[in-house]
Predict the structure.
Amino acid sequence: MKGIRVAAAVALVVSAAACGSSSDGGERTDLADSATYVTTIPADPGNLHPLKTVRQTTNSVDTFAYDTLVNIDPSGTVVPQLAQDWHVTDRSVTFTLKDGITCSDGSELTAKAVADNFTWIKDPSNASSVIGSGIPSTDYTVKYDNAAGTVTITMGSPFGFLLEGAGTGVRIVCPKGLADPDSLAHATDGTGPYVLTDYAADDHLTLSVRDDYTWGPNGATTDTPGVPDQVEFRVVQNSTTAVNLFLSGELTDVTPNSSDQARLEGRDAFTLDTEQGPSEFFFNERDGFPTADPDVRQALTMALDREALMAAETEGEGTMADGLAVIAPRPCPKDTVSGHLPDHDAEAAGELLDQAGWTMGSDGVRSKDGEDLTVTLSYPTGEPAIEAAMELVRGWWEDIGVSVEPKGQNQTAFLETLFGGTDWDAAFLNVQIAYPSDFVAFASGPTPPNGQNFAGITNPTYDRLTAEAAATPTDEGGCDKWAAAEQALFEAADVVPISNNVTVTYADNAEFGPGIWNIIEPTSIRMYE
Amino acid sequence: MSSEAAAGVPSATIAGFAERHPTVVFLVRRTARMIVALVVLLVLSFSMIHLVPGDPVRAQLGPRAPASLVEQRQAELGLDQPLPQQFADYVKGLFTGDLGMSSSSDLPVSDVIGQRLPHSAALAGIAFVVIMLLSITIGMAAAILTRDGRGRGTELTFTTTTGFFATIPEFVLGVGLVYLFGVELQVLPVAYEPGVAAYILPVAALSIGSIAALARIVRAETLDALGSDYMRTARSKRLPARLLYLRHALPNMLTSTLTLGGLLLSGLIGGTVLVENVFAWPGLGTAVVDSVVAQDYALAQAIMLLLGATVLVVNLAVDLILGVVDPRSTIKEM
Amino acid sequence: MARRGQTRAALRTPVGVVSLVIVAGLVILAIVAPIIWGEEARTTDVPHLLEGGSAEHPLGTDNLGRDLLARTLVATRLSLVLAILAVLVGAVIGVTLGALPTVLGTRASRATAALIDFTLAYPGLLLAMFLAVVLGAGPLAAILALGIASAPAFARLTQTLAASIAGSDFVAAASVLGLSRRRILLRHILPNIAEPIILNVTIAVGYALLAMSGLSFLGLGIQPPSYDWGRLLNESLDRIYVTPEAALGPCVAIVIAGLAFNGLGEALARAASTRVPRHRPQPAMAEDRPDDVTTEPDPSATSDAALVVKGLTVTFPGEDGPIVPVRGISFSVAAGERVAIVGESGSGKTLMSLAVAQLVPHPGVVTVDRLSFLGTDPNDLPSAERDRLLGTSLAMVFQDTATCLNPALRLGVQLSEVVEVHQRARRTDAVRRAVDRLRSVRLSSPERRLRQFPHELSGGMRQRVVIAVGLMGEPRLVIADEPTSSLDVTVQRQILRLLRQVGDDTGASCLFITHDIAVATDLCDRVLVMYAGRIVEDIDAASLWDGPAHPYTRALLAAVPDLETDRTVALTSIPGRPPDVAAIPPGCAFAARCSFATDRCHVEIPPLQVDAETSHRVACWHPQQGRVATITRTKVEAT
């Protein structure tokens, strides 16, 4: 059942940023006034408070009602939204707000109100989910100047993506809502182009346009022809049902899963591709685990036919992974994978294991010092494609003399296993990150429960390069340093990225573009008759 | 209940009372039994969900959330308390109407359930009525047509047709119905929307299998009834068919049919989980699975309790109705 | 032996045969499929994943390019094994739980019963889901979950069956002998309920297949790399609009297997059922009576006879040609006359009376040369008039007082409906008449009785009510079929007295069917003795003791019990058994048991010959004379 998978898989989406390429269904001029844009979300969004949620479903609704300080356009350029200007250092960012921004209740948005958001996030008693996704830690200070309209955030340690993190990772809540968090469960109080006007649990949400909205990215306003008057989210768990609804004309757009995609292919419709990923292998590198040995990891990697694995895992709809932070607009759009992972060569893999002292037994299983080479392969269940892909992997590894114990678990139990650290050797999971720096906590530092380094990775090269990269702003060669750091992980077979999944959004009488967080940019929607 | 040892005069009085007011004793006994069952259900629903492995807060916040944030959330939800304390709080909350916060949606459980229950109840309720009406009608008609080994062709058609529909998985049936009526013919909505039309397909998907299964039982029960001595007596009175079947046969097969119907309801609750998914129905069915998988303790507990209590209450109601329709059933309990 | 024969017969029905063939096919498939197609089902072909049907892959390929047809076939083994194991787990738990009340004390057994009720009520799918999550999704969890979820149903079945067996005579006897409860359970109860349990296991396997697919649909069933039909279906259901054939394979497999197991179970259940064996209609079903059935000579009927029957024959279709339990009977009942019909069980007397009352159940066929009830043939009347005639003028009193009144209806309804339907009486009039009739059958506080249900009355009281029902119209003929055999001796006399008095009061004739010739002579004016579907003697009650002519009648008389003998037990003192109704020998049917029989008796049927003077009729080649020598004649007091 796809829906369950989607709902639960959100837990793995660390943070996400927007879309891939868009293709055009043809030039159209019949823009519609006062139309309603109807789309789907896979589950009820729950509490809509934007600073307390980590759910993609909730974020996709909140985007319409809460603006962020800056935005990122499809080319990856940071563009103004609430802030008209900004100034970045290696550990601080200062935003200068636009004039005349109003909250949905008509009150003006002040620099203090913006700063209060950051102060609220810092307070541990608020248990804000922004910490760890938009902003790396609570180790920061906030200053503001109402007269100048400036807000400055200063981190305790260098953070190369502070502009993007603070600028797009925090949806600004207006003062009234911030003071009364409970009031935001099923209402909105932001500066975005839409306001929530109707909510029916597990069924639909409706947002209505604000006529006075003029501070969109790149000067977008709601006074533009074709901008929908209303946006309706319908809760549809089952992808097939969503496609049925789309085909019967009840939805403006639909994003089918790969098997339903065939029903829409060849349709004369507007499409928008979105890349998600990558899915990758981690190996348990704690002492005593066979995969602590780099040769074993290398051999296991060489045994993989990554192209076939990608095809199986994405049901033929994906692409080969080319980096750790692949979600568009990519801050560092460089292929960091090609040439840094070994080619598929089962024979060489076997030789490598021979060299490492794992000798082939008569039963086809290698052993060393009387211990069989047994690998527990841990992965999340619920998605047939992943489960099928794991069957392939099992076969390849068994071919080189590794005894494989598959361990499929639901998302919750899977994470528990992963963070428990003792019941797995190899794990296949999808870690979506917005910035290369988001990966540092996974590949270095303390193991759980004191940190997020669940695989126990120790890679001095990666540690050194990431420290340098963190202190280097993007436009001064930061991306190259991040690429080198990632490659150090691949070459040591600490992390083996496999595939990116590509989803396609189809729309019959609308066009739109990608925004941040893999969500359609609200102000880009144009409706046609 | 007074022990037998304390007998003497009081127990004689009790026995006398029981003899004079069998209905009252029946009511008291049934209600007491239901209260015990509810308590068992309460303990079970609480302990079972806490047996599920995995940390719900970690699962919800994701692998990147810092340990301090996880601890903070756990404290907010009361999950850092020892289990007995959590249970005490849970029971206290039940009596004050506070069912806690759903950890996955960050909303009060009472809201989550309150908004979804009416949709599920409407679906299950309509399906239940449709099932009872159609299965009794079809089953009785089939029994009358095939009584005493008549109508072999009809019997074969009936058994194979009902067998087929009772065996086909309801989610497959649901998908098939949507495909035919929603997508190909486009005469009925493919998913939930306000209005009667949206109910037709999900109710059909939910009830067809049960109608088939129950109709078979109704037919068997009716055949039993038709072959009975009192039906021969009734026939010897030369009553018209209407009275023969509706007055004499129907009440006698209602006992077992209604009992099964009550049990059927628990099957319906399971069925809604599958059907609500296919029809994007804003009901509790989807919340059941999601809350268990996401270990949303408060929500899962509450739903389990609610569904279990519903089933118990409906079965009590069935017993009470039976007590009226077929007075022998109260005696049997004595 | 008989059981096995029945089972074989049931399996010969079309449903039984087809089900058995499919189940056998599935079992064979489960054994050989992994060997034959296992390799093909494992071969991955990633470039051709998720393809639709083609010549090479009729059902298409799965998400690793493996052939779905091969996988569906191979999955048979796991699907069946899982379903069967789950049902076995459920059956073992359920039977244990259900048998407990039999061996435990009252209080403990009531608690167990309540527990079964409770678990039975709990949604099985929810239980299964929780178990699957707690134990981790996989085959073990799925088996346990479905097993535990199906256990309550088995528990309830066992409980009901065990309770009924526990109440039976031989268990009561075992208790008296001092056997322990455990021993009774193991030795007597479990073997007796094994058969229905096994049938239900068969049916449950079909549903377990279905439930397993539901678990898999939720992702809680079998986990990869194993696969059963449920998982194959779950994987391909997402693609149903694109490649429907992929879902078709496992779906068809589940439905066919489910149907086959259900069909087999039901065919077996039908065979084992203790209900009246079903009659198979044969194409050669005879409307005409068989050759060896001859119409008995005209009865000597008076012009005002209440009932005249000539050549009454009842035929049932049988496996080997028609069965004729009533063979060309002719007799008459004069107005106000009381006629007894006497014979052993199986002599056709009850069926004959049902034929007269037009109540022979399907597929029995009644043919008659002449039937006259109160001067008209009911078959000549329009149906409404016939119903009114028979409904008001013919009263039936049946044998079993415990079952012949409708347990779910108040007595008032059961009494008044006759006149409300046939005489269009108003409710108040009907009630008034009902009170009057209840009073006339000597039932106390009749107004209160009208609001009571049959179970609130004793057997004797119920039989009075049945007689009162017959009196609601204007009965001209009362057919009483062993009306006292289910009652104890004292009550028997009261009911007999009542019947006689009813006859005297209303002037109605009475056809009194009994196996007790002493009761017959005491109550009735005339006695018809039936044997193997024919009247063998028709004699005045008064002259019966002086010397019946037929050896069978004489044997019956010789066997009359005295007062101390239990009269509910069929007569056994005549050596031999009555012939099987399906194979009545040529010649005189009684010849085999008759000490006077000659060769002729075994060849030629003796005609029923009338003594013109006494109108005494007898069918015998060697009629006897004189009083029956060895009778212990104790006249039954009926007054």
Q: What stands out?
A: The interface with chain C takes residues 1-2, 4-5, 239-240, 243, 257, 259-260, 262-263, 308, 311-312, 315-316, 381-382, 384-385, 387-392, 394-395, 406, 408-410, 413 of chain A (CB under 8 Å).
